[in-house]
Write a structure and sequence with these properties.
Blueprint (H helix, E strand, L loop, with lengths): L2 E5 L3 E6 L7 E6 L1 H12 L2 E9 L2 H12 L7 E4 L6 E6 L5 E6 L23 E5 L7 H16 L2 E5 L4 H4 L2 H11 L5 E5 H8 L7 H10 L6 E5 L5 E5 L4 E4 L12 H15 L10 H15 L11 H4 L1
Parallel strand pairs: 1-4, 1-8, 2-6, 4-5, 8-9, 9-10, 10-11
Antiparallel strand pairs: 2-3, 6-7, 11-12, 12-13
Helix pairs in contact: 1-8, 6-7, 8-9
Length: 312
């Protein structure tokens, strides 16, 4: 079984005690860290590749990574940085909003020379998101990692995971995503992100939007589109599609649902129980759909990721 290498932000999420409350609890956050937790909780081998500060928050994050079974031998500790913080607003319907506080954040200061080519092997998956692709040392570390991964036959997974609070300039975000899509073997977007990237304004234009995205992604074999309570879809390069209903759940907190979805699919890929073709991935998406129902029925993200026994 290969390993997952997740690259990008591992930060502190301050979660409210209840919708509208101003009492918060610190939790490990960051989509790459959540995907690592999803795979590790299911029994897969997951490494976090990124930088943590040597402050109390960074020490907490390192202990959390280890608690969830995530391997930290690729994790760099830097005493010259601070930990990025996010305050999460939670609404009664389970949706959430994010407010970022970033002053010399560790996750944006990973340098290319802190990587090694032997971190990425054939049979592995390298997963990354757009948050770490803003101009920074970490953006250039991503480019180096992706070159290593492609050269070594590592499968590359790109979850666009838009956070406009950070980008502000939508066109700059689009162009940056388009710069990185050519590295990806699999791409995950939400329906809203798909419309943002392709400029298609109607919800009924999903297939045309996926086609436009695939034109920017010459290596991509599959595109996953998640749509919250409307379920998800998967498309291959021929625009053959499979559509999946969302599993029933009592929604408590949707934080981490998308990370659980793609993490569960990656887990099946690493186990050899799925492949990047429309038929082979079918059971993996069904599995991911059940895992997401588990996550959104609980509060939190990494701490809410299911084990195999939870899903059974």
């Amino acid at each position: 079984m290969g390993k997952l290498v997740c690259m990008g932000d591992c930060i502190i999420d301050f979660l409210p005690s209840a919708p509208g409350e101003l009492t918060y609890t610190a939790k490990m956050g960051g989509a790459p860290a959540n995907v690592c937790a999803a795979v590790a909780r299911l029994g897969g081998k997951a490494h976090y590749l990124g930088k943590l500060a040597d402050d109390n928050f960074g020490k907490f994050l390192l202990s959390e990574l280890k608690k969830y079974g995530i391997k930290t031998d690729y994790t760099v500790i830097d005493g010259n940085c601070k930990t990025g913080l996010v305050v999460v607003d939670l609404y009664k319907n389970g949706d959430r909003d994010f407010f970022f506080y970033r002053d010399t954040p560790a996750d944006a200061n990973l340098h290319p020379q802190e990587l090694r080519s032997d971190m990425f092997e054939k049979g592995d998956v390298l997963h990354f998101c757009s948050i770490s692709l803003m101009e920074s040392p970490t953006k250039h570390a991503h480019i180096q990692a992706l070159k290593y991964a492609v050269a070594n036959g590592t499968t590359v997974s790109f979850d666009v995971n838009v956070r406009m609070h950070l980008w502000k300039d939508a066109e700059k975000l689009r162009q940056t995503v388009f710069e990185f899509l050519p590295y990806a073997d699999m791409v995950k977007v939400t329906d809203e992100e798909l419309r943002l990237l392709t400029g298609e304004s109607c919800a009924e234009c999903e297939m045309q939007s996926v086609q436009s995205l695939l034109e920017k992604s010459p290596r991509a074999k599959l595109v996953f589109v998640t749509k919250g309570e409307k379920g998800s879809s998967v498309y291959d390069r021929n625009l053959t599609a499979r559509h999946y209903r969302a599993a029933k759940a009592d929604v408590v907190d949707t934080t981490g649902a998308g990370d659980c979805f793609i993490g569960s699919v990656i887990y099946k890929l690493l186990k050899g129980e799925a492949a990047l073709d429309i038929d082979s991935v079918d059971s993996a998406v069904e599995f991911a759909t059940r895992a997401c129902a588990f996550v959104i029925s609980r509060k939190g993200a990494a701490n809410a990721m299911p084990s195999l026994s939870d899903l059974q």
